[in-house]
């Protein structure tokens, strides 16, 4: 990029967005930092790092020599992201708020605000890349070059207008290089640990947080044969594939259930919302945990139009390798099917199925069910 542009950078207080701002300033652009406050329910809580994050972002802006503005998007976040998060959990699904936050806050509310400030582009510290395809004249979302940090999965709902305004400078780098740059230029947060988990929950226990917002209705935990083996605290508090926090041990009898011995670990395998029953099975590779096919809806395509049905690759959760599959339209309008060559483990309704063609992220949707079964 040779022309100087006014670029608004989302400064989170972390090292990735800090190096993003510095790189753009080095390229000669006019860079303005914005700190997004998206959550304020427990601002004074030990779990909420918002205040410290802003102080870190302000210190970074000072070192780099750019202005920083503190903008409160908490109302937008609550309406567009958190309300949907609670609705999904109430329905027994497991949503991914980071995907919604990117589509609704960082590349909608934040983008709109940046445009009002006269920005030509916005930039964030995501590990992804954008390029203009010369043949199609469409913007493509690409994986970040560091395979261990690639975040295109979380950005798959971005459309052409959003991609056309987005810059991801650290997507061209490996994390080790980002840390090296930060230390070299004396950024105060060069060694700050990466944030993990969901932004509004922070480090607090997840069940404790959900308990404040969702009614819990206890019910039975049953095994694959319908035997009661425990008691759950409410279906919303469990996700498929979950191993911890079930409160059940092995079955002490001869003839252990399929999938493992009497002391094999238990995993959440199904939820029956109608009877308020949680089903658990023993053994990581139990058939109830493996799916060759899934259905997704609420699809969003980076190219604005869906890819042609046929072979592609997909992820059903963030930290997994691309899995070979075949895309087909479902009989129900607006729904799509993915058929996998190898069975996928603990495919979870509410999570995102994200499609790829090599390094190009095609888009994706929200998992509705597996093997034709309903989400519940």
The string of secondary-structure elements, in order, is EHEHEHHEEEHEHHEEEEEEEEEE
Give the CATH level 1 class of the largest domain: Alpha Beta
Kindly report how far apart the N and C termini lie: 49 Å
Global structural class:
alpha/beta
What's the CATH architecture name of the largest domain? Answer: 3-Layer(aba) Sandwich
Question: Roughly what is the average pLDDT, rounded to an integer?
Answer: 91
Number of domains: 3
Shape: globular
What is the compact description of this entry?
This protein is α/β, with parallel strands linked by helices and 376 residues long.
Task: Provide a descriptive summary of the structure in words.
This protein has 376 residues and is α/β, with parallel strands linked by helices. The chain has helices at residues 15-26, 50-64, 74-90, 97-116, 160-163, 175-184, 206-211; strands spanning 6-10, 30-37, 67-72, 121-123, 128-133, 138-143, 166-167, 219-222, 228-232, 266-272, 277-282, 290-301, 310-315, 323-329, 336-345, 352-357, 360-370. A six-stranded antiparallel barrel has the order 12-15-14-13-16-17. The protein has a five-stranded parallel beta sheet with strand order 3-2-1-4-7, sandwiched between helices. Strand 10 (266-272) and strand 11 (277-282) form a beta hairpin. Helix 1 packs parallel to helix 2 (50-64), helix 1 (15-26) packs across helix 6 and helix 3 packs antiparallel against helix 4 (97-116). The termini are far apart. Mean pLDDT is 91; it is low at 252-257 and 372-376.
């Amino acid at each position: 990029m040779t022309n100087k542009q006014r670029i608004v950078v989302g400064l989170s207080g972390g090292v990735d967005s800090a190096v993003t701002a510095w790189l753009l300033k080095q390229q000669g652009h006019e860079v303005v930092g914005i700190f997004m406050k998206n959550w304020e329910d427990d601002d004074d809580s030990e779990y909420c790092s918002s205040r410290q994050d802003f102080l870190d972002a302000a210190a970074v802006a000072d070192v780099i020599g750019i202005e920083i503005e503190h903008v409160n998007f908490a109302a937008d976040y609550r309406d567009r992201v958190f309300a949907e998060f609670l609705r999904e959990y109430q329905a027994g699904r497991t949503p991914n708020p980071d995907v919604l936050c990117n589509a609704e806050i960082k590349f909608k509310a934040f983008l709109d605000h940046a445009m009002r400030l006269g920005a030509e582009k916005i930039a964030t510290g995501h590990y992804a890349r954008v390029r203009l395809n010369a043949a199609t004249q469409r913007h493509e979302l690409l994986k970040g070059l560091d395979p261990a940090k690639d975040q295109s999965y979380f950005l798959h709902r971005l459309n052409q207008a959003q991609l056309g305004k987005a810059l991801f400078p650290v997507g061209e780098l490996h994390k080790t290089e980002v840390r090296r740059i930060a230390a070299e230029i004396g950024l105060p947060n060069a060694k700050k640990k990466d944030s993990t988990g969901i932004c509004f929950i922070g480090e607090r226990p997840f069940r404790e947080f959900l308990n404040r917002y969702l009614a819990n209705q206890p019910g039975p935990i049953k095994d694959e044969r319908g035997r009661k083996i425990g008691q759950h605290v409410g279906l919303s508090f469990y996700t498929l594939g979950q191993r911890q926090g079930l409160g059940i041990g092995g079955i002490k009898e001869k003839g252990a259930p399929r999938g493992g011995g009497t002391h094999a670990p238990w995993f959440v395998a199904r939820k029956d919302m109608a009877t308020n029953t949680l089903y658990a099975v023993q053994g990581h590779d139990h058939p109830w945990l493996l799916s060759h096919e899934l259905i997704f809806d609420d699809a969003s395509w980076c190219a604005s139009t869906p890819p042609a049905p046929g072979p592609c690759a997909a992820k059903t959760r963030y930290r997994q390798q691309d899995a070979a599959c075949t895309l087909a339209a479902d009989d129900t309008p607006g729904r799509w099917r993915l058929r996998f060559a190898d069975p996928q483990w603990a495919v979870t309704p509410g999570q995102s199925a994200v499609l790829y063609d090599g390094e190009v992220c095609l888009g994706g949707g929200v998992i509705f069910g597996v093997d034709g079964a309903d989400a519940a």
